[in-house]
Backbone:
């Protein structure tokens, strides 16, 4: 009896590797911004890389994320945390 080709399984494991492999590390990992993003932005999904969005798109996304934090009953960002996170995300945003 012939075994079925293994292509679907290979494709599935490749897709998983793309997603579940080691995430791209945050730039300047010791900076305040990176520490805050790691601490506050990984509660609901993987910690997002700043290069995911352009600098001009981060303010609206951050505002949306603050709304999601409120909906989930998470502590809101303090004003200085918000400033540091936004500055960090924009400094390392997608060009
Ligand atoms: C309370 C849960 C929660 C926290 C905490 C949170 N997010 Fe999100 N995030 C979401 C949800 C839910 C979505 C899906 C879009 C939506 O429904 O708003 C999302 C989507 C995103 C996306 C879009 C994902 C994509 O596929 O491009 C980005 C970028 C993002 N979040 C960044 C952040 C950043 C930066 C922080 C920290 C400031 C953060 N998130 C913290 C819940 C959260």
Residues:
């Amino acid at each position: 009896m012939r075994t079925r080709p293994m292509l679907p399984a290979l494709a599935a494991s490749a897709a998983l590797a793309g997603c579940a492999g080691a995430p791209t590390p945050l730039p300047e990992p010791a900076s305040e911004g990176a520490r805050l993003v790691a601490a506050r932005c990984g509660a609901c999904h993987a910690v997002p890389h700043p290069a995911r969005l352009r600098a001009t798109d981060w303010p609206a996304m951050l505002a949306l994320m603050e709304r999601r934090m409120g909906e989930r009953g998470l502590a809101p960002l303090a004003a200085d945390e918000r400033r540091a996170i936004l500055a960090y995300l924009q400094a390392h945003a997608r060009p």
Remarks:
- The helical segments are 7-20, 32-40, 58-71, 79-91.
